[in-house]
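User: Can you predict the 3D structure for this chain?
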Amino acid sequence: MILLRHGQTVFNLHFGKNKFDPGIPDPVLTEVGRKQAENAANLLASEPISRIITSPYTRAIETALIVAARLDLDVRVDACVRELAGFSCDIGSSPSDLARRWPNLDFSSLSPNWWAFPGDPKNSGLDEPESNLFARVCGFRKRLAAESDWNKTLVVCHWGTIRAMSGQLLKNGEFVKHDPRPTIKPPT
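Assistant: Here is the predicted structure, written as structure tokens:
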């Protein structure tokens, strides 16, 4: 499979300046982020991709749809590839809000607060233990590895998800090929 980190967001732009959380839930892509997604789409056009899976965060959906338009593919939403919940940007939008914005995507598998992790005492979606992300990613990898077309799948996701899945640290708009079949160890 190919793991693509979403393009730059307004959160990334502000957070990158001073490393303080600017308080922007579920941010949109910046113009730079849209260009990063278009560049990735052009580079990925030569790959044998037959499906696109995306995180339900707005930034990932926007990136996935830019790539999908270039590759003429549909997009499937999967909350298992969402980001490690730790900042305001990791507070998502409700399934009904997402469905209003993108009526052609299926959000029916999402719970109302899909970004909140199991055991979240405030249901806020913040301060998720990395072990939760790792367990979620392992389940996704195992499920995908069991499918015959895993090597033709593009997964649009996040820095923490990609790190947990592959050990790679990618910048916005970068991608890496990854084999989901081997067992992985938790990041250190």
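The chain has a mean pLDDT of 93. Residues 2-177 form a domain with the Rossmann fold fold (CATH 3.40.50.1240).
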